[in-house]
């Protein structure tokens, strides 16, 4: 797997309101991932319907939409080896009660409807989500000096 795989990670409104941004960013940085895009934003209905296109027919979708539009979202893009898969490991299971201690959801969330973060579930979806939330020029390409201490 290439060291430049990218994933989209969003701190949802509950995570932002609870002041968990620094903790979540720190976990990804401490793991060795490179932050290549970051912005605090308010998501509109059009963006969220595109982002959650596979869920629009679900009975819980209106509640999800309302929740995601209830406050600011920190949208981030992280890069590194197996970033999508490992990002999901750092987040924990979608249902916080099934998340292991030490994961973001396992440590900070109780209910599925307030599970703090979103993470891409595949490389293909990561590419789609990144393109939805970020313009190409908003992503920064650089080589961190720490890479030699992370990758062989």
UniProtKB/TrEMBL annotation:
<protein>
    <submittedName>
        <fullName>Unnamed protein product</fullName>
    </submittedName>
</protein>
């Amino acid at each position: 797997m290439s060291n430049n795989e990218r994933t989209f990670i969003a701190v949802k409104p509950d995570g932002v309101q609870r002041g968990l941004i620094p903790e979540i960013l720190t976990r990804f940085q401490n793991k060795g991932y490179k932050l290549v895009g970051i912005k605090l934003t308010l998501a509109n209905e059009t963006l969220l319907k595109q982002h959650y296109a596979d869920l629009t027919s679900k009975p819980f979708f209106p509640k999800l939409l309302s929740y995601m539009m209830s406050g600011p979202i920190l949208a981030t893009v992280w890069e590194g080896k197996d970033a999508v898969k490992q990002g999901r490991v750092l987040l924990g299971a979608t249902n916080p009660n099934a998340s292991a201690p030490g994961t973001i959801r396992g440590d900070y969330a109780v209910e599925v409807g307030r599970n703090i973060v979103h993470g891409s579930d595949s490389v293909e979806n990561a590419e789609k989500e990144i393109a939805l939330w970020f313009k190409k020029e908003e992503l920064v390409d650089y080589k961190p000096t720490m890479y030699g201490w992370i990758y062989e």
